[in-house]
Amino acid sequence: MLFMPAAMHAQTVLQQRLVSARCQQCEVKSIIQDIAVRYDINLSYHPNFFAECPRVTVNFKDEPLKQVLEQLAACARVRVEWAENQVIIRALRQYTLSGRVLDAETGEWLIGATVKLSTGSGESTVTNEYGFFSLRVYEGRHRLVAYYVGHRPQSLTAEVQGDLFVVLRLEPDATLPEVTIQNMAAAAAGSTGHLSSGARFSTTEMRRTPMLSGETDPMRYVALQPGVLTGVDGLGGLHVRGGNADQNLFLLDDVPVYNPSHALGLLSIFPSASINHAQLWKGDFPARYGGRAASVLDIRLRDGNPYAFGGEVSAGLFAGSVMVEGPLSRKFARDKGRQGEGEKGKSSFLISARHTYLNPWLNLLNSRYQGAFFLSGDNVQYRFYDMTMKANFKPSERDHLYLSLYLGGDLFKNQLNQTFSSSAGLLNDRYALGAEWGNNIAALRWNRTFKSGVFVKNILRYSRFYYQSQQDLLSEIFSFTTGKRKLVANYAQRYQTLIEDVSAQTDWEFRPFNELEIHAGGTYAFHTFKPGALSVNFLLPGQSPLLADSLTKALFNRERVPADEFSLYADAAWAVWKGGRLEAGLHISSFEIRNRTFRLLQPRLRLSQRVLAHGQAWAGYHRMGQFLHQVGTFNLNFPFELWVPTTPRALPEEAWQVSAGIGWTPPGWALRVEGYYKYLSRVLAFVSSTTALLNAGAEDASGWEDRIIAGVGWAKGLELTAEGNFAHTNLSLSYTLSQSTRQFPDLNGGLAFPFRFDRPHVFNVSVRQRLTSWLDISALWVYASGNPITLAGVKFRHQTHEEMASPREVFVYGSINSFRLPSYHRLDISCRFHFEGRKFQHEILAGAYNAYNRANPFFMYLDGSASPETGRLTATQYILLPLMPELRYTLRF
After folding, report:
1. Which residue of 250, 710, 768, 816 is 20 to 30 Å from 292, comparing CA positions?
2. Alpha carbon of 93 to those of 70, 138, 162, 451: distances in Å?
3. CA-to-CA distance for 604 and 452, rounded, in angstroms?
4. How many CB atoms lie within 10 A of CB 260?
5. Nearest to 889 by CA among 820, 825, 840, 817
6. Phi, psi for 702 (deg, rounded to 5)
């Protein structure tokens, strides 16, 4: 009751005191001063509050003082109140309004969702890879609206009197046209006004593209993007804008992956049922990504449903998979989880596994093409497996703990028997080939959102890649004259390589104000290398016994090379001027090995400007580098290519890239043109581009430094993309015009030569049509120039001194990559049938890979034995994938 008179007095002064004012094109502060003087009002305020207010014309007549002052002060961020027997105009305080956006059905964070203020200036932002957003707002009542493709918009009204954290849950909307999911670039541009330098792909988008055996695969989908090249049928890794395969940073839930492929590149290690989304940067990635010189492919796994148990079982022609997910605790039911802040699910898990059954197909192709199939042999065996597990727990609304695990591996075996007849006798060569490789990955992550809106991510991670193989040759000759067998060669090779990382990383994300977003953090990694390029000869008569000792070193090699890597980074995205955006960053890293330290300074800069109604232009300069190298041959990219560290004789690789482009996103369309130029320095290769380590004769693993050389490279290109949505039809086209070269002082006479994955022209066309609510059809046509290869130009016969030995043919190779394989093209088609029941969802995918059975050459071999009289060489072409059926059944529950 004691406070009632003061409150009534304030109400009387502000509401019942009537004032009048009339002025044309006057300053706001002048009008307020005039009212205070004429009506003898004790008014306190700072004149700078209204410095940005335009001149106004007013005509108030006997209106309440509070209403007049609020209308005059509407141009400034202030509020009017009564205190200390005077009218005070105070500046509004700014607070952080942060939160997360998630799917109301599955509990998954919605990455790239748009969050917009429908009050005030209408600021907007986009959620990060954990569904987090942050905005700076003035105190008062605000209305937030969240948008995400395929979901109903969700609004929330919040009374902001301090830093506030909220959660927005969006309901899936099955009535939305599914084809709109394609135009992710346009959706992102609509939320921020700027096209991102990184392209984001959803699992739904990838499922609607025809792929080998019906497997949804992010690696094969990324290979269809402009500026991304591969070998034939996707083998040979990804080569982004002229970069090497090892210059790509593959991340699985923030953990680096060194070999992302199964089946030599036909499939990736990433299980589709567990993927939330994938994002690709082509050499213009932010400073928070480091350690590679070409690109970043960031794969994020789903968290699992915290409200209900579910899963997916899928079986195709090549592999089968299973996935289960659900809450770790039964305490939170599905319906409860979607009501209120305190009742939602606190934990969840997701487990997926996949196994292949390729052997029947290998045997069929081997018998069908009678040796022209690349994996021909007398007993070919191949299989792979992978398993993914993820668990998460939310001890509080602002804290989130994650545990991610991945195990996967490949096993390959083959046997070959070859018989040659000569005047000396019958020569029989028996080969035994075998290889085994795989990845082990683990990560423990703690995400924390502070009250001030700062988002922090701390990670402990482990990554291991191993490869080991063997090749045995037993060569015997049967003499026609003596009737006896004689040993010609008993040869064995062993390859082994291993790289193992233990690392810690911290990342901080915050917004000092809405126009500026900052990322900063650092990483420490402890690397362990076992570079084992080992070639071993069994003891033969007349040879040195030292070669036999190398067998022991090969089998029991324990050389391990440790190294420490440190990095710090800072990224800033700043809306400096109207319609413009500046993205700048700096990545500083060091690498310590054998008491030597190497450093890299990597600046990043990108400017973008909105032009016209739906357009944007941009330009950027990015410098990238890496301390890890993968070296191998120039012809095929197999896993035995070795991962080796930076040393004084193998300096860090670096790349400089400048790029510029323009994009236009009118309604229903997304058009983009971008050009780039890249220079690569200190690119590594083996001295021999054809035999690699086959004749190296290394006695231990330390010899790799003696057989590598460093060179330079250039790459330039123009990329064009167009996407259009027409009712239930989606059309996508991409074209890449590019050139990539390499130059080494000790290769090819010091002259430049084409990069082995250089393809001047690449053209992809994709069409998708939704015929009914349960049937979609898709078609994909791919065209690419042939890969350059190295072929022999001269052949001669060599006779050894042993009387029983048969003469051997020796090939003399010409310029490196001076020949090209024929152009590559194929057509893939698929039909997707999907039915929904009360508890189960069924999906059947049927189609054909390489529908018109194009005999695309995998590689070419010159054989002189077919025409010994003329001495001419005959080109033998090997193929990999002819017409292949696609069939896959998926059951979701």
Report:
1. 816
2. 17, 6, 9, 16
3. 28
4. 23
5. 840
6. -80, -5
403, 391 in Cβ contact below 8 A? yes
Q: Give the integer Cα–Cα distance in Å for 767 and 729.
A: 7
As a whole number of angstroms, the distance between CA 508 and CA 303 comes to: 21
Q: What is the pLDDT of residues 695-722, one digit of tens each?
A: 333 333 446 777 788 999 999 999 999 9
Contact present, 564 and 520 (Cβ < 8 Å): no
Of the candidates 471, 461, 362, which has an alpha carbon nearest to the alpha carbon of residue 415?
A: 471
Give the separation between CA 194 and CA 581, rounded to whole angstroms: 8
Instruction: Output the pTM of the full model.
Output: 0.83
- In sequence order, what DSSP letters do the residues of 759-806 get, joined into one string? -SEEEEEEEEEEEETTEEEEEEEEEEPPPEE--EEEEEEE--S-TTPP
CA distances in angstroms from 648 to 591, 630, 645, 682, listed in the order given: 12, 16, 10, 12
| Residue 249 burial (CB count, 10 A) | 21
Closest among 225, 242, 62 to 677, alpha carbons compared: 242
Cβ pair 830, 846 in contact under 8 A: yes
Helices (H), 131-268: 184-192, 203-207, 218-222
Average pLDDT, the chain: 81
161-170, 388-397, 552-561: range with lowest mean pLDDT = 552-561
- CA-based radius of gyration for the chain: 33
Identify the structural domains of the chain with CATH numbers, from first to last: 4-91 (3.55.50.30), 94-176 (2.60.40.1120), 290-892 (2.40.170.20)
Of 639, 619, 618, 622, give the one whose Cα is nearest residue 630.
639
Q: Average pLDDT, stretch 770-788? A: 92
Q: What does each C-alpha distance from 283 to 310, 330, 627, 717, 843 come to in angstroms?
A: 39, 45, 17, 13, 37
Residue 292 CB contacts under 8 Å (≥ 6 apart), including other chains: 246, 247, 248, 249, 624, 626
Residues 6+ apart with CB under 8 A from 347: 306, 327, 328, 329, 391, 392, 393, 394
